[in-house]
Amino acid sequence: MTARQARSPWATLLLAGTLAAAALTPGCGVIDASVDTRGNRVDQEMLSNLVPGVQTRSDVSALLGSPTATNVFGEESWFYIGGVTQNRIGRKDALIDQEVVAVRFDQRGVVQRIDVITMADATRVQPVDRVTPTPGNDVSFLGMLLGNIGRFSPGGAASRQGPGAPGL
What we know:
It contains five helices and five strands. It is of the alpha+beta class.
């Protein structure tokens, strides 16, 4: 009996599965974690074309595109938020770099000033772990189902007569 004939079907299946997993592993990002640019990255060349006191909202929109976010309260501001993330296996993507360009406008819609905020300027915020209570009862799914028994009329909506009733 040769070595080829002595191999069991399970050993062949295991070998084929191992080879398939090895071939597909690079596509999963295990070997090389990908680095992705996200959001609206504004480079210094584009920023150098903006002159406070000269350009308007339409000029900024034509040069930088639509803002990622706008200020709702206080002075009118447009924010261009961009970042670079790195894929981490089994975890949330890591934020490697982030930059926010804040373009502030006056009442006439003319650029007042431009601020560039980097990760070095950021303040780390620690979220609170407690849960905000909500009013009402803590009812299970089964309790909700059983609680609705007897609340509806036997004929349903079709038994109503008058304006807006089906068939009238």
